[in-house]
Amino acid sequence: MAGTDTQPRTPRELYRFLRAALVEPVPRDHHQSDRQFVRRRVVAGVTLVVGSFVLGFGLTREPGSTAFYVSTVVLALVWTIGAFVSGPLHLGWAHTRSGDRHARPIIQSLALGALAVGIFCAGAVVVAQFAFLRDPVNDVLDYARFASLPMVAGITFINGVAEELFFRGAVFAAIGRTYPVQISTVLYALATVATLNLMLVFAAGVLGTLVGLQRRVTGGVLGPIVTHLTWSLSLLFLLPPLLAALTPME
Q1: Taking the CB of residue 45, how many other CB atoms lie within 10 A of it?
Q2: Which residue positions in the chain have pLDDT lower than 70?
Q3: 151 Cα distance to chain centroid
Q4: What's the confidence (pLDDT) of residue 144?
Q5: What pLDDT is attached to residue 2?
Q6: How far apart are CA 11 and CA 147, in angstroms?
Q7: In a 3-state reduction of DSSP, which class is residue 82?
Q8: Can you give the pTM of this predicted structure?
């Protein structure tokens, strides 16, 4: 089946790749005692409340302001500390093309991230035509346009890793075996509601579903981290010029 050592080339290869990456779980045994499970839930719950507040504060600050930079670094620390304090985290494994072994989900995750970037860029064609969709996206992209782009890229990298450690690490494990993908995605999207930006909430829902499925398959956070970073860093550089080029002249 398609796995970490190749990228899909044909529709059939694409189907096999997506099935291996998002549908068929890799066998593992990540057992938690009742005490560990309760501890993880308590830590994850407290961290989620604190992180949501910090996220809402950060993305309502002026682009390039000291408050923006400080709050985003604090947010990464909140997610990361909460993730590691909650309990053990696992890197995870992915299917390979041969099917006779497993490998770390790196190339597979890069391919998933690239597919997500392509879908979002295609969606930008529609978003650019309507102000009520375009304006909320531009509000987020202003942090790349008017702040220090290298610093924003660094913050995007750090926060992408931190979010996956927490939401696909601590939160996913704290949910248990009943609807972990759906519940972790809803919580991830709800955490962005404090930003008052509906397009950001929508993006969180789409990305959360993708990496949530990947987390269920691989059993760890490495795959979701690579996919998330591929998606977020690519769109950071691609979306501003793309929306500018596609926006109708007034």
Answers
A1: 15
A2: 1-9, 250
A3: 19
A4: 76
A5: 44
A6: 41
A7: helix
A8: 0.91
